[in-house]
Amino acid sequence: MSGDDPHYGDEMIAFLESMWGEGYLSPGGPKEVSRVITGIDLTGCHVLDIGSGSGAITVSLVRDHGAARAVGIDVEPGVCAAARRRVEAAGLGNEISIQQVEPGPFPFDDGSFDVVFSKDAVIHIPDKAFLSREAFRVLRPGGWFAVSDWLISHDGEPSPEMQRYIELEDLGFAMGSPRSYEEALAAAGFVDIALVNRNPWYAEVAKDELALLEGPRRGDLEARHGVELIQSMIETWQAMIVVLDSGEHCPHHLRARLPH
Ligand SMILES: C[S@@+](CC[C@H](N)C(=O)[O-])C[C@H]1O[C@@H](n2cnc3c(N)ncnc32)[C@H](O)[C@@H]1O
């Protein structure tokens, strides 16, 4: 993704934050973040946040969950600038760094982190085997991979409905299947691999979001983001709900651990 043609430009950041909260470019807010890391004590940990977006989650990993240090990486300049502002405003400039990176190997030494976290961002990394190997490499022995991502329920070609939805999103999605993730994580050397399907949750939440978009918030959202953008988002949400209801679009929490 070049800085000239961002998927998450200022307009998209502003719209997604209207939907999901200041600094959040994915659904569920603080509660969903807590679910992704349930049972993992972040106190004193060094955490890598892959695809940190506009930064509210990276901040909360330190401020609310006790991580000693967090590094947020992202490929887009606009979100990195927004995240840095958020980090500074939170007074966490010493604890959190936001790094703009190129897609590819993570720019960190082996064993640098206790936890590799990500919220709905590794959908943008097509090679799940490479992602898994890189996560494994930068974790210390016993470290955790605790990730939320948007998955497709099967391997092979997406259905025409899924294809249409992915085209409407136009965000460069590269969805993996649960099977492909399990295989990739196991092949990288991870153990205790566990997947939780969040489709039932998001299928309901997305309908509430669409009701707000089409109903009481429409005028306000149109005034803030433009009639055209809101119309295209309504079409995207309608298409998304079809594939959430069929189960083909299945957000998951992915959990795995490095052996000691
Ligand atoms: C849906 S947003 C989620 C942001 C944040 N995690 C949140 O939940 O608010 C996905 C983010 O992944 C970033 N991204 C895309 N490709 C990436 C890559 N190869 N490495 C790291 N981040 C990437 C995007 O720029 C975007 O900020």
Structural class: alpha/beta
Q: Which CATH architecture of the domain at 10-151 and 172-198 and 250-257 would you pick?
A: 3-Layer(aba) Sandwich
Terminal-residue CA separation: 36 Å
- What is the typical, i.e. mean, pLDDT? 96
User: How many separate helices?
Assistant: 10
Helix content: 40-55%
- What share of residues are in beta strands? 15-25%
Would you give the CATH topology of the domain at 10-151 and 172-198 and 250-257?
Answer: Rossmann fold
Total beta-strand segments: 7
Strand order of the biggest β-sheet: 3-2-1-4-5-7-6
Shape assignment: globular
Question: Superfamily at the CATH H level of the domain at 10-151 and 172-198 and 250-257?
Answer: Vaccinia Virus protein VP39
CATH class placement of the domain at 10-151 and 172-198 and 250-257: Alpha Beta
What are the low-pLDDT stretches, counting only 5+ consecutive residues below 50?
A: none
Order of helices and strands: HHEHEHEEHEHHEHHHE
- Which hetero compounds are present in the coordinates? S-adenosylmethionine
